Amino acid sequence: MSTRSTMPSVHETGLTAAEAAARAEAGEANVVKASTSRSVKDIVRANVFTLFNGIILAAMALVLVTGSWRDAVFGFVIIINTGIGIVTELKAKRTLDSLSILVASRFLVRRDGTDTEVAHDQIVLGDLLWIRGGDQVPADAAIVRTWGLELDESMLTGESRTVRKGEGDPVYSGSTAVSGMALVRVTAVGEHSYAATLTAKAKVYKKTVSDLNKGINTILKFMTFLVVPLCALLIWSQMRTVGGWQTAIATGEWRQAVVSAVAGVVGMIPEGLVLLTSLNFAVAAMRLARQHTLVQELESVETLARVDCLNLDKTGTITDGGIAFDRLVMLGEHTDADREAATQACYDLAYEENPNGTGRAILEGLGERGYRPGGIEARVPFSSARKWSAIATGTATWYLGAPEVIVAALGADGAGTGAGFADLLGLVNEHADNGERVLLVARRDGPAPAGFADELVLDAAARPVALILCSERIRPDAARTLAWFREQGVRCRVISGDNPVTVGAIARKVRLTGDREPVAMDARDLPQDAHQLGRLLEDVDVLGRVLPEQKKLIVEALHDCGYTVAMTGDGVNDSLAIKEADLGIAMGNAAPATKAVAQVVLVDGRFSHLPDVVARGRQVMANMERVAGLFLVKTVYSALISLGVVLSGIPYPYLPRHITYVGALTIGVPAFVLALAPNTRRYIPGFLKRVVRFALPGGVATGLSVLLTAWILPGIMGWDILASDADLMALRSTSAVVLFLMGVFVLARVAQPLNSWRGVLVAAFAAAGVAGAFIPFVARFFALRIPTGRTAVATAIALGLAALIFFLCLFVAPHVTRFVERKLLRKPAPRSRR
Q1: Alpha carbons 663 and 660: distance in angstroms, whole number
Q2: According to its record, how does it sit in the membrane (predicted)?
């Protein structure tokens, strides 16, 4: 520990070392326990013990018990899918665990009458703490004495302007001292401080809701009710085909019966769709990463395709947080020489050793116009306490500062004029209402008065000559990006902690509402009821003076109105709303707390990346809807075939390895390629309904084709499939061929239009399926046989019948759907409960 002797002298002695130690022992030190809501065990358990994994694992175990490991290859999807889920959530957990609003550093406290440097976690309740320019406030406190302290609270409140603090005023942990210093007494530490409270709320884990995953889980839940009894019936029926339970167990035929039953069960579970959804999200996230967009939760890629309401924080999203010099406005009559002199004086006034943000903006703006430092005899640097600065050039004295301060110092008659100040202040207010930051330039002709640099008094003989107008620097891509969202039908609102007039002016500049004037409102007038707030928000485009809790309430109110809400932001004050939103988006320069709870982070802070994220989400959603039909077709025909097998008491017409082979070539691999294809179609609600409508005709056609093959072909060929293993294998090989043909038909339907690379894709996988049967290793592993002789003729007949059934089902299905919908529409609407 070290002491400082450069601090202002004060009479307060602070706590004694013994008192500080006692309070630390009592748990009143500035320590925050690091914890998240989910442990590694919880994450592993949640991803391993799922309904999908349970069904697939049970089926895999049954097959392995029989010794037919080749028929159990379908189980590898569990390992891949579970691994992706665990890795993704562990990454999110590490991010949440590292969440911290406060930057760990050392601070100066006053104990036993001396100033001592301690670590942030050694500060205790009641300590006297020095806050100096550049410090981040480590704990909540109240000001005892101040020497011009100004705080940047934008990360906590969203207010972009610095706040000047007086004695007795509260200061909150997480804010930053911009200038001046103060001695404060600590009033809350650790988990009781403002920053820690926000952090704790933000650390609560919330899984992103995915329409795709919800649809898939709905299918899985439905299939569970179907699979369990059907599996039992399948095993019972397959045992009967080999002579009953006693015979099956005595001869070992039970193994084949179990494998046959599993073939039906596995076919009903769209295991590839679960895996493909995870992989597709992961690939989309990698593509977005190349565009400097970090996706922290894979499911969030999909969510932006559904977003119809985008809440924007002003600072850091539409503006970059900096100040830009706009223009110099001369007052009264003036010549070009007067303008030139005033402009040069503005540059010289700002040309200090450590200019503030406004000074830097003036230097940058005028520097681009060729201005350089001029001759200065004396200077009074800017002070946040005085709110003005001055220079003497030998021929004139120039003043720059807050208009109300300079006008008040000029006297009632304004150097003898007696008029014009009311008009001047009206002009200042008019510019301020447009969201501009206004400074007044005043001039006193002649040499500087005696004691100019020492007395620090503004000369009442000066006269106002010009206004300097600055504004928040708007991101160059903001207007273009907002225009894109308007075209896409996404309602954008600006929600900020700043002055509603200032925010409204910026909203006008970026054409937030197009040609319509944006409606601005002060959040202090908002109702606290979410339902009333939601109705009010329908007519409001800009909200200012919004507190962090209100931002969260606004998101909840929009949810209550049925919106899918995305929220952008960069401050800690945005973290609760970002957490509550369907999709949280943090800018690259955001506070660690905000980035930790967001699902998407725009790493380089460019607002213009959002359309790319939306497009990628739409690609995922539209393509996954396309390929989901492929997997659901397999579910439909597997359930239909299983039911037919149980009712007719025949052996199952194909093996699990057959469905693995056919599924890989007509569903799994092609689906992955199709899922990555360009697609910018806007998402329309009703994903599951459309997928089911697509899958039913193809699934019914495939199921009928395979069942008719199994029922009719043995009679034509004279096969005894109950007594002869060779005849049963011939039937299963033929059924696999029929299954493959129907799979190619369904793939061709999904891949439409076929007059492009999609047609080549279908042809390539059809050729690969045929070629595999001629490769000895592949044929042996998957039990594939090329039909020959009479079997080839019978197979050709079966294929022709299957093609006919497929096209008949496609023709009949739309008519049946329209008939059902017409019947449903004729039903009287249910009475309202009101």
Answers
A1: 5
A2: Multi-pass membrane protein
The three-point CA angle 356-361-363 to 5° equals 95
Give the other-Cβ count within 10 Å of 122's Cβ.
Answer: 19
Establish whether 313 is a catalytic residue. yes
CB atoms within 10 A of CB 214: 12
Question: Residue 765: what pLDDT?
Answer: 93
Most confidently modeled range among 81-95, 264-278, 728-742: 728-742
CB 586 within 8 A of CB 600: yes
How confident is the model over 517-522, as a mean pLDDT? 91
Domains, the chain, in order of start with CATH, read 17-30+103-190 (2.70.150.10), 40-63+71-97 (no CATH), 211-285+618-813 (1.20.1110.10), 293-318+476-605 (3.40.50.1000), 324-473 (3.40.1110.10)
Give the tokens for residue 298.
């894979």
Q: How do residues 354-407 score in pLDDT, each as one tens digit? A: 787 788 889 999 999 999 988 888 888 887 667 888 999 888 999 998 888 888
SS3 362: helix
> Are 481 and 495 spatial neighbours (Cβ–Cβ below 8 Å)?
no
Cα–Cα dist 818/805, whole Å: 20
- Structure confidence by residue, pLDDT tens digits, 658-706: 888 898 899 888 888 888 777 767 667 677 778 888 888 888 999 999 9
Q: Which of 351, 446, 339 is nearest to 400 (CA)?
A: 351
For 184-220, the DSSP string reads: EEEEE-GGGSHHHHHHHHHTS--PPP-HHHHHHHHHH
Can you give the pLDDT at residue 93? 61
* Bridging pattern class, strands 176-188 and 293-295: unpaired
User: Would you state the structure tokens that stand for residue 646, as one six-digit string?
Assistant: 């149980």
Candidate list 127, 140, 313, 541, residue with the active-site label? 313
Question: How far is 137 from 131, CA to CA, in rounded Å?
Answer: 7
Q: Give the burial string for 727-756 (b: 16+ CB within 10 Å, else e).
A: bbebbbbbbbbbbbbbbbbbbbbbbeeeee
Map residue 683 onto helix, strand or coil. coil
Q: Give the whole-angstrom CA distance, residue 232 versus residue 709.
A: 24
Contacts of 347 (CB under 8 A, 6+ apart): 362, 363, 366, 367, 371, 372, 373, 374
**3-class DSSP state of 672:** helix
Q: How would you classify the pairing of strands 176-188 and 128-132?
A: antiparallel
Calculate ∠ Cα 90-95-101, nearest 5°: 155
CA distances from residue 174 to 27, 102, 199, 641 in whole angstroms, order as listed: 21, 6, 11, 64
